[in-house]
Amino acid sequence: MNSVIVSPEGFIQQLKDSLIPELTAKIYKELNIKQPTEYLTRDEVCKMLKIDKTTLWRWTKEKKIPSYGIGNRVYFIREEVDQVLLKNKIN
């Protein structure tokens, strides 16, 4: 049987790394705290999906990806883009 020696500081750090994200998620869920909406630009969506702007333009015109605009600015909500990808899952 192998023994692993961990310093007290290392042990505390391991506890933090494993417990804090889990507890934070549970607190958000329990308190029903809504994460702030993340808005993406056309460039960010194109980079994220690895597509050209013309493809993104066509997909928005075909109502495949919802978009929002103010003036000449066009925005996408990250969660909705993720949902479109999940909805079109292959297999």
Unreliable runs: none
Q: Level of helix content? A: 55-70%
Query: Kindly state the mean pLDDT as a whole number?
Result: 89
Strand content: 5-15%
SS field, number of helical segments: 4
Task: Briefly note the structural class of the backbone.
Answer: mainly alpha
Helix and strand layout, with pairings?
Elements: H1 8-31, E1 39-40, H2 42-49, H3 53-61, E2 68-70, E3 73-77, H4 78-87
Antiparallel strand pairs: 1-3, 2-3
What would you note in describing this structure?
This protein has a domain at 39-87. The longest helix has 24 residues, at 8-31. The mean pLDDT is 89. Strands 1-3-2 form a three-stranded antiparallel beta sheet. The chain has 91 residues and is mostly helical. The chain has helices spanning 8-31, 42-49, 53-61, 78-87; strands at 39-40, 68-70, 73-77. The chain is elongated. It contains four helices and three strands.
Q: Short summary of the structure?
A:
This protein has 91 residues and is mainly alpha-helical. It has helices at residues 8-31, 42-49, 53-61, 78-87, and strands spanning 39-40, 68-70, 73-77.
